[in-house]
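Weekly modeling sync, notes
Attendees: AB, CL, MP (scribe)

Item 1: holo prediction request
CL wants a bound-state model with iron/sulfur cluster before deciding which constructs to order. AB pointed out that an apo prediction alone won't tell us much about the pocket. Agreed to run with the ligand included and paste results into these notes for async review.

Input as submitted:
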Amino acid sequence: PHEREPTPVRTACPYCGVGCGVLATPDGAGGASIAGDPAHPSNFGRLCSKGAALGETLSLDGRLLHPEIEGRRASWDEALDAAARGFRETLDRHGPEAIALYLSGQLLTEDYYAANKLFKGFLGSANVDTNSRLCMSSSVAGHKRAFGADTVPGVYRDLETADLLVLVGSNAAWCHPVLHQRMLAARAARGTRIVVLDPRRTATADEADLHLQLRGGSDVALFSGLLVALADGGFVDQAYVDAHTSGFQAALARAREIAPDLAAVAAACGLAEAEIAAFFDLFAGAERVVTLYSQGVNQSAQGTDKVNAIINVHLATGRIGREGMGPFSLTGQPNAMGGREVGGLANQLAAHMGFDAASIDRVRRFWDAPRMARAEGRMAVDMFEAIDRGEIRALWVMGTNPAASLPRADAVRKALAKLDHFVVSENVASNDTLTAGAKIRLPASAWGEKDGTVTNSERRISRQRPFLPLPGEARPDWWIIARVAERLGFGAAFAWRTAGEAFREHAALSAFENGGARDFDIGALAELDDDAYDALEPTQWPAKRRDAGGETRFFAEGGFFTGDRRARFVAVEPPASRPPDAGRTLRLNTGRIRDQWHTMTRTGRSPRLASHLPEPFLEISPRDGLRAGLTDGGFARVSSAHGEAVLRVRFDPTARDGAVFAPIHWTEETSSGARVAALVHAVTDPVSGQPDAKATAVAAAPV
Ligand code: SF4
């Protein structure tokens, strides 16, 4: 008798926002072999180094597999009772402002939906924020200002039909590799030009036709100058501007003040006029242009203005929503978009609705919610500062590691110790947050066990399907939330038996009293039965009840989601000058490396991935390094006003003087004393609340 070949399970990668389809074939012993899914329309079978190594990361070593209270193993009943009791007591004593939930862009949409519903509809607290605040909230804010909704207008295929791709603050070759491979393949096939705007000479810049190594923070000046050049050169699509937008003249007038001519732009960017002119000529001369942007734009104290400066030039030229054209936000995490869709940010309600009276009432009626949050809650940085001040007393962290990833990480860690009630649900072995005093630890299911959906950067909803059994007593996050809700007296509203039931409710809410007024509408998916949900093919939204299906773009013919259906130009502002930080003359830029993901709880298990860049480091120009007394390959003690980290020195002859770079991945758990987030200042964008992780004043000295 011959054994049947195991069947590959179609699922999605748990890392970046490209959202690649993965085929996982379980080996029957807790492992699986991994391949790209040739039928997934976002990656067509490709995987990057991280995705290809997923099979090496499935070990259960040291994993939290049973609930714990105060470090002791507990039953689920005991742990859930204690978790619910703590929130009930804090609510009764201090009100809904004193409780908070901190989520993750790696949760599935169903988990996110359940968490958001419990807190915003049933406990009356909008203190629901997520590590996506650190990732793309400036894009959300920029989209809402310009489009009236958080809409990504384009699709990945536009990268293959564009004549010019402009990557701003994006090292896609390392951070969105499969998408970058699609761009390079398009260039080989049809001669697409690629421009990279980045203060660092990255792997992406190496592949570009033109790299503008501009001064950090000068993007607003550059795109203001481009708007002026387009206007003066006769490249404005006046018909589109007149028919579908408002505010053009005011935005242009402000741009003229900021960037009157090439010389002003060149001075602001620290570049030669010829380099600026070369970029402007390419942009003006190519009809099909996609501008992709990522953390160099978002993680900034002017992040929202940077996003709007980019959107302005696309609106002015009418290059939006048509094939091969548009501004394009690349999200960092696998389900940052799904989190946005359920309202998993403190300034969103649900299904892309905000905290206006009509939306609050609509969502209240849909949920039959007894205690709706009435106003926006605290965003990530503010949330942890409120914990430090004792204003938030009870916190639930799900699937993320704020003690290692938030700015001023040492202060965050200290603040966590002040909580009366601290619950963590986690699917990793150990991390800085689990060891920062969590009283109740709940074992959540991990990738390979989880069952639900994620949405990638091109609005495509894909299934994450389980191919391994739930280990120990681990449970899905949505299930854990529903059981806590039950104990708080809301069982009927959280009575889902499967992830699919939670998803259908979320889909129905998106269509509830919508009538085309809101961009996010997946009403067609509310009608899936269990089998159809299980078999759901990757689906781009909108997926409305009557006209579901197919590839979709927004705004080619206007139809924005503002009151008058017109897009708004935004008069953007350059950064205010900051007072010099005596003795700390270097500007620290933080980011990812090619083969690690966030705080390495999964990628850190793969020896293959660890071999690329095996230890924490500081990239610095040789001139700055020598001036600081450092040696290439030695160690530096890097210090800011907030903390210190000891990092290996790498002299980088391509680095701009005054600018240093360090990766974000190492933590106290993995490399004591090298946690870069401890250095990062807690400066945030005034509109989006996103922390500026690219410009902390630091000093470096030999160890
Ligand atoms: Fe995963 Fe992103 Fe790599 Fe695709 S590109 S395999 S989604 S990490």
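Recorded for review: The chain has a mean pLDDT of 95.
Action items: CL to compare against the apo run; MP to circulate these notes.
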